[in-house]
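thread: overnight batch results

M.L. [08:02]
morning all. the overnight job finished for the chain we discussed friday. pasting input first so we're all looking at the same thing
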Amino acid sequence: MHNNSKKADKKARPSSTQGIRLNKFLSNAGICSRREADQYIAMGLVKINGKVVTEMGFKVQKGDQVHYDDQFVKRNPPVYLLLNKPKGFIASTQGGEINKSVQELIRSKHPEKVSPIGDMGRTVTGLLLLTNDDKLRQKIADSNSRYNILYQVVLEQNAQTADLDALIKGIRIRDKVYKIKSVAYIKGRTKNEIGIQTSNISPGLLKKILEQRSLKVMTMDRVLLAGLTKKDLPRGRWRYLTVKEIQFLKMIS
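M.L. [08:03]
and the structure it wrote out:
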């Protein structure tokens, strides 16, 4: 009987070569560092298949359901990309089949779903974030999020001083007033080229705001996005965000 019991125990507990350590699993999923994971595990914040696990060496098996702080942890690690979008491609959060979507620019490295945060039309160029982290996407896409964006805009006609003043005072569209943080002529250029600093205003909405002043956009380039710039990122290329950049984005409120 004693020997049979030992055999049963051996079957129930995976061998040391199977699975992935829980702290590594959480780290790979982008939740935290391994050291932090050990703390969260000890605090009883991690569940496997509905049961709290506090064992440091516990190994996650294929098919296990892992929850941290009651949130399901995806097995695929999160991906955070910054793309310098070229003309002719479209970023859409609506899904469906799109001819020349921005995903085509990253597909060779990421065939899995890595979606853009916000929409960008074919004629708009510049910085665009893509991620499979739904929580971060929702946070940044929230209309109450406050993060800086800088657009360089070329208009069909010159912008007058009165137009710039009106943009800062606020433009009403339907029942809402939209204010631009700052706007100025671009030094050394003609008066149809302006720089616009905003908080969480999409290219499409910015075009509508400018149209209220009869200012028609020829080109629009997003050159700053939540502290991220186009430095060392040529048009049509992308890069992974650094750990610091990801942490900063997660702190934005």
